[in-house]
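quick q for whoever's on today - can somebody do inverse folding on this one?? i tried earlier but teh output was garbage lol. tokens:
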């Protein structure tokens, strides 16, 4: 007998993107994202404005996801939503919406860890190959930077984490002093292609074991730029490509050195990337090159699944649905949710 398909509605609202997706089993039928442009003029996410924008966006985004998938809401088998980590006010919008809809439709509710989702996105049925367990997971995003051992779909062990800023935050804060707007990661990536990565020498912070640190680097870059613009007001415009290339080069070195250490320490030559910074072309090509040299297996998510999206929440929702790993109405959003 043919098994009935499982339709999951997934909702992601952990930061400044309101996103909804519909999955039929492990296949994405729709994946809608409303990016909140309001934060651009402040050079970073303003939490209060983010939660208000989520409130405005969530109904149209969910409606569009259902419509685009060509199903009716009565066909949904489960509602998956981001339980954390993230900005509490933002998480609460998705959480309360998901809970209300689950009660209304009388379907199971599934809370999802956003950081697990960034890595499990590789299990979406697509043209890209999925890794096998165990593997080394590396999440490089705007809010987190983690190195984990992934032993099974939902069995994660944290091996290292940033002690201060996230790598995406370092891209964004350096880009802000260069006048590149928010988020600055993609702009740095574009300009870095035209510059010399060795033009300026920035420090590689020393964090112990597999932990990481980015704040000393960020402060060094900001001080260097201030000092030089005091001497020459055209310093940034005259050196923008070289500055971007040198910043990107150093940030990639910082994460790469830890990846290499983790692979060797834990004997995990399968490396799986996730999170917004995994869209960075410099990081992608460095990893692809190293794969050939060292015989590693590197899994890079397709670009559409690097930054925050609801499809990644949906695949975890589906995996948990298969395990009957359901949440309940008492489960509350957590800004610092652990694995
Ligand atoms: O995973 P994500 O969408 O949100 C969080 O969970 O935090 O990551 C957003 C981060 C931002 O810091 C953004 O600047 C960075 O990802 N990012 C990039 C690139 N595309 C996005 N950083 C470097 N190069 C890129 N191409
Ligand atoms: Zn994220």
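ok took a stab at it. sequence:
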């Amino acid at each position: 007998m043919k098994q009935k398909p499982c339709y999951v509605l997934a909702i992601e609202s952990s930061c400044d993107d309101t996103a909804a997706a519909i999955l039929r089993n492990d296949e994405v039928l729709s994946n809608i994202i409303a990016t909140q442009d309001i934060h651009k003029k402040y050079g970073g996410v303003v939490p209060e404005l983010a939660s208000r924008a989520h409130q405005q966006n969530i109904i149209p985004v969910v409606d569009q996801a259902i419509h685009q998938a060509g199903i009716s809401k009565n066909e949904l088998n489960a509602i998956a939503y981001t339980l954390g980590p993230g900005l509490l006010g933002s998480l609460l919008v998705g959480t309360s919406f998901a809970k209300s809809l689950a009660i209304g439709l009388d379907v199971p509710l599934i809370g999802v860890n956003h950081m697990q989702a960034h890595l499990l996105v590789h299990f979406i049925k697509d043209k890209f190959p999925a890794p096998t367990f165990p593997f080394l997971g590396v999440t490089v995003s705007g809010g987190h930077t983690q190195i984990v051992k992934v032993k099974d779909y939902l069995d994660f062990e944290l091996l290292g984490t940033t002690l201060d800023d996230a790598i995406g935050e370092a891209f964004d804060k350096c880009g802000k002093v260069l006048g590149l707007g928010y988020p600055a990661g993609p702009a740095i990536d574009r300009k870095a292609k035209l510059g010399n990565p060795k033009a300026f020498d920035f420090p590689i912070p020393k964090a112990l074991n597999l932990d990481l640190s980015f704040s000393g680097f960020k402060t060094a870059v900001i001080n260097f730029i201030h000092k030089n613009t005091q001497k020459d007001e055209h310093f940034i415009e005259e050196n923008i490509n070289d500055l971007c290339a040198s910043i990107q080069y150093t940030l990639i070195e910082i994460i790469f050195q830890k990846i290499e250490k983790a692979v060797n320490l834990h004997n995990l030559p399968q490396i799986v990337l996730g999170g917004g910074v995994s869209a960075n072309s410099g990081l992608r090509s460095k990893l692809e090159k190293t794969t050939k040299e060292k015989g590693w297996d590197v899994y890079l998510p397709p670009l559409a699944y690097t930054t925050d999206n609801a499809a990644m929440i949906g695949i975890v929702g589906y995996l948990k649905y298969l395990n009957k790993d359901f949440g309940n109405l008492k489960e509350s959003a957590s800004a610092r949710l652990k694995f």
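fwiw Residues 7-121+306-322 form a domain with the Nucleotidyltransferase; domain 5 fold (CATH 3.30.420.40). also The longest strand covers residues 27-35. so keep that in mind when u check it
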